[in-house]
Amino acid sequence: MRWREVYPGIDVVWHGAKGRLEYDLVVAPGADPSAVEIAIEGADDVAVDAAGDLVLACGASYVVHRRPVVYQETDAGR
C-alpha cells in the first residue's frame, strides 16, 4: 500500500517483512527529508536501544521501530 505525498515529495510505502509491518519513506529528487516528523502518543516510555532501534514501552509490552536504513536506488541498483 502506498500513501502518496504524506509530505511534499515524500510517499510512505507499507509492507510486511518476517511477520512484521514495516514502512519505507520514499523521497523524490529535490524533496526535503527533514520535513518528516513522527509523533509518538500513548507510550509509557520511549528510548533508543544499543542497536539504534526506537523502543516504545506500552504497559508490559514493547513496540520496536527498527533503526532507519537509508539508500538510493539507481539503474545500477542500491
What does this protein look like?
There is one protein chain. By secondary structure, the chain is mainly β. It has strands spanning 2-7, 10-17, 20-27, 45-48, 54-58, 61-65. The strands form two sheets. It has a three-stranded antiparallel β-sheet with strand order 1-2-3, with no helix packed on it. The relative contact order is 0.14. The model has no long low-confidence stretch (mean pLDDT 93).
Keywords:
mainly beta; single chain; 3-stranded antiparallel β-sheet; 78 residues; 46% strand
Oligomeric state, counting identical vs distinct chains:
single chain
Largest sheet: 3 strands, antiparallel
Arithmetic mean of pLDDT: 93
Strand order of the biggest β-sheet: 1-2-3
**Count of helical regions:** 0
Structural class: mainly beta
Please outline the helices and strands.
Layout lengths: L1 E6 L2 E8 L2 E8 L17 E4 L5 E5 L2 E5 L13
Antiparallel strand pairs: 1-2, 2-3, 4-5, 5-6
Concise account of the structure shown:
The protein has 78 residues and is an all-beta fold. It has strands at residues 2-7, 10-17, 20-27, 45-48, 54-58, 61-65.
